Amino acid sequence: MRSPFRISLAVLITVSAAWSAAAQAPAVRIHTEGRVDSRIPIAVPPFVSGRGAQSYGASLAAVLSRDLDFTGIFTIVEPDEYPPGFQGLQADATKLDFNAWRRTPAEHLIHAALSTDGDMVVAECRLFDIPVAQQVVGKRLRTRSQWARLLAHQFADETVRFLTGVAGVASSEIVFSGSSEITSSSGRRRVKEIYIADYDGGKVTQVTHHGSISIKPKFSPDGKKIAYLSYKDRYPWLYVYDRRTGASTALSKRVGLNHAPAWSPDGRRIALVLSKDANTEIYIKNTDGTGEQRLTKHRASDTSPAFSPDGRRLVFVSDRAGRPQLFLMRDDGSDVRRLSFQGGSSYDPAWSPDGKQIAYIVEKDGLGLELWMMRSDGTGARPLTRSMGSNESPTWSPDSRHIAFGSSRAGISQLYTVTIETGVVRQIPNLSHLYSEGPSWGPRRN
Amino acid sequence: MKEINVRSMGVIVLACLMAVAMGGCSNDPETSINPGLTASDPSSGSGSEITTIEGLPEFDETILFTEDRGLGTIFFDYNSYALRPDALETLQANASMIKNVPGVVIQIEGHCDERGTQEYNLALGERRALATREHLINLGISGDRLITISYGEEVPVATGHDESAWSQNRRSQFNRAM
Description:
The complex is a heterodimer of chains A (about 450) and B (about 180). By secondary structure, chain A is mostly beta strands.
């Protein structure tokens, strides 16, 4: 089936390899060398909807379109550019009229057909290469009806994987803290709870119901657990929420502060900040609660540890040189060296999953908090935001192409993403009913 | 308790100390018992007549945690946990009051303004509380009676977005430890 496309595929792999090396303006030119816009034009018509699946057809196509648009790699062909007289996709994908589609700007087209099987939704998804009139990806995806959006996200990731060599991140989730006012016997008060949403703000689910302040959640590397700080038992202790059992258990309840959990990439250890020794210091312990060990030994304040992707080093914040700046150390606390040299203060480091970059927050005197990025050797520091709001808590997408963060630029705290290659900043939609902050970007769901 | 004025504080504390000596003075405000202050009237010449002293309200150490007469809140400079001269003065007065009510455990709450990140401010608030605790220990308060809790930037007292609000929010305040 795919044999006529092999040559073309080889070209694609070469292109995407060169693109990764450049890591800047993507030079994806697959068919139309003369195209000015380097983005791939793709058509995503409403899905064919079989009996029982009618309610999903248009909405899932819209989800998939937004997923592809989000990557910065695609431009979505508008319906008014579709072939004249186009009446929607036919269930039989072999009946696609490539001649008609060749006269549109589209170079790729997604054909998806939905059906139901009891409580399950089934999607047969195909990616067509229009100039060569060939199916290049085909997947049959199945999930429970309440997770139907996931089918669109997963095929978006497959499409990106085929065209760039690295899967997209549309099937990933974001966990964050959302605040709202509740009314209780003691009057109205503001509480903060932990929520999970699809990376695009869809399918918001409240995770905790502590009626307290619960903040700074961090996804475990496998996405199955969430470490967070809560005052639910009066004191700032760390808890781990298990998504399988729905239970929260205390991970650390030392006297004083228990804070800033950072999962090791293998999920076996957690770095954290404790003040039990009368100073805020960084410790490391096993996620089963054993083996607590102190890493920093300095009378300055040390906080905000984040692991390198190989798990051997940590970047952290310390004011040992005056204002808070980023430092590096090994995972046994040795070999400490300073990493950031921006003026003002630096906070909230986050190491990219590919290991190449560190995102962090810079505060210059009299200015707001801005998102910055540097190479993990400390060179090439540059700002990614330029707003007079407070931008904080950066977290990387699994493909290291985007950063989510919290920002007060619109007056209230909301979540945003920035795409590294394009610099495009978007608000994560659908969350504006919550004051949202402190995001952590989880893994793809397969 | 509203009728108590500042001047009566010393009397009350004294009353409480007497009560402690007599085995009273609960720590629990809900069950705060009448200290049972009794005395023989020295003028009566009769050792058997027992009269309750009027006009002395029962002591409730929650006064330590009232806004105007209790332990004073101290304030910090931006991004700093150094104790300012005005904070040292307040802590001196606070230490005297704490010494007068043995047994009460004090929770020192460290707070920050909204600048800096939420994550950093939790550490900064803890450092403010720890610096406050350390100074009170130096002033003779037992460390066992002083616990710290950081609220970072989560619980501001002033909601504005300027220095007048920020300066009120960068603080250590005192509460009863539960």
